[in-house]
Fold these 2 entries.
Entry 1:
Amino acid sequence: MKAIKLAIVVTGLMIFSAVATLAMVNHGAEQFAIDGGSKGEVPFPHKIHQEILGDCNACHDVFPMELGVIKTMKAEKKLKRKQVMNKTCIKCHRALKSKGESYGPISCNDCHKKK
Ligand code: HEC
Ligand code: HEC
Ligand code: HEC
């Protein structure tokens, strides 16, 4: 009897902590600007992407979850200039367009509002 009660309590705790961990995931800001070097800032709707894609790693396998990290990694030569732009952002938007699904901007001025 005691063993069964203990098992129930332990299972309950495991479920509780799993749910708590999920709720605690930091989603970051809903909207911010990415540093676009010489081309000025790129407004980025973070939350829209999180909701539509449902996969953090669509972007965060390339750079960690930290504001300003793309700029830092470019300065440290861990990312090439325009690498995220071409290999992450535009690559996905193009692929969606060719599949006939709703997609994000592909032309320069739709992302680079300045200049
Ligand atoms: C479409 C691309 C993309 C997806 C998908 C994405 N992120 Fe991000 N995320 C970014 C970019 C870009 C930055 C900022 C990088 C920079 O400023 O250099 C960022 C930054 C962050 C930050 C730091 C921002 C802050 O306000 O402190 C957190 C936390 C974060 N992301 C969490 C997540 C989580 C959790 C998911 C999945 C639910 C997710 N992201 C999905 C692109 C994305
Ligand atoms: C989907 C949005 C998007 C589109 C479309 C886009 N860019 Fe970018 N661009 C970015 C982002 C994000 C960065 C910063 C990250 C990086 O360097 O990969 C950037 C960075 C740049 C940089 C600066 C690189 C540096 O380090 O100084 C240049 C130059 C640039 N883009 C030119 C262009 C041109 C030209 C086009 C059109 C052919 C274009 N971009 C289209 C999002 C975009
Ligand atoms: C894996 C796919 C994917 C990646 C990676 C991705 N996007 Fe998108 N993006 C989308 C989709 C899907 C939409 C269309 C959302 C909609 O239906 O309005 C979109 C829309 C957008 C929009 C327009 C949002 C609006 O309000 O209409 C901007 C701006 C944008 N993306 C910028 C970026 C930038 C900058 C990056 C790179 C840091 C990026 N995206 C990376 C899939 C992606």
Entry 2:
Amino acid sequence: MSNVDLAHKTILVTGAAGFIGANLSQRLLDEVEDVKMIGLDSVNNYYDVSIKEYRLKQLSGYPAFTFIKGNIADKELVFAPGLLPPLLHLLQVLHQAVFLNQITPLQLLPILVR
Ligand SMILES: NC(=O)c1ccc[n+]([C@@H]2O[C@H](COP(=O)([O-])OP(=O)(O)OC[C@H]3O[C@@H](n4cnc5c(N)ncnc54)[C@H](O)[C@@H]3O)[C@@H](O)[C@H]2O)c1
């Protein structure tokens, strides 16, 4: 599926109940060997919540998918030990750099996706 080998990895998808997040999650679950997915989403009501609930119901059929309902801005949730995979600990450090005005969110993006 990609140039990055995601087999046997735990992947955090933010916005997992959204259009892209849910489709990406499903595709990774279908195609990547022994992948574990953690989906984080606040399930906001920007549009019909029942659409997001339907997507999450589909994803809940995968034993390798775990859903956490919450806001990425909730520090207690995000920093809870052991809750989210190691990638987020990296994000933590990088986000702190944003909070401290050492880098801008736009400078952060290419670091996160490379
Ligand atoms: N859909 C497209 O065609 C398209 C194209 C280009 C870029 N994008 C970008 O991709 C991203 C996802 O798009 P989408 O169409 O899946 O949107 P979407 O609204 O369907 O999904 C976004 C999800 O993020 C969740 N969310 C929002 N704020 C949150 C927060 N603070 N904490 C946790 N969850 C939160 C929402 O509840 C929602 O389920 C967006 O940044 C969008 O701008 C989308």
